[in-house]
Amino acid sequence: MFLITCPYCGPRDQSEFSNAGEAHIARPTNGEELSDEQWADFVFLRTNPKGLFAERWVHTAGCRRFFNMLRNTATDEILAVYRIGEPRPQVTTAGPVTPSGEAPIGSGNDAVKVMRPGEGTE
Ligand SMILES: [Zn+2]
């Protein structure tokens, strides 16, 4: 669990929110001209980076408003929260630092062994 700061309500527990996928996806304005492949790309294909990622979230158990978040998907570090329509903030984040390349915390995959500092260095 971690805290998410809703831009309308303030800090709340993660359980009050739902992830709504990648942010800044532009809806096609020429839908009748698109091929099946172009529609499939718009509807289904998203980037899935490990590291800095712009996401939409909704405060499901609160104000029910959507907003954007910049999050490091490897560490769950939240770098910025901003309202829909506001420009994406410029931020930087550090990459994973463990010897295996996995994030030290918050990998999102419970099957992955979490390495603590100094662990596995004998
Ligand atoms: Zn809210």
From TrEMBL:
An example molecular function term from Gene Ontology annotations: sarcosine oxidase activity
Sequence intervals crossing the membrane: none
InterPro entries: SoxD, SoxD_sf
GO biological process, one term: tetrahydrofolate metabolic process
Record region (Disordered): 89-122
Taxonomic superkingdom: Bacteria
NCBIfam families according to UniProt: soxD
Name used for this protein in its record: Sarcosine oxidase subunit delta
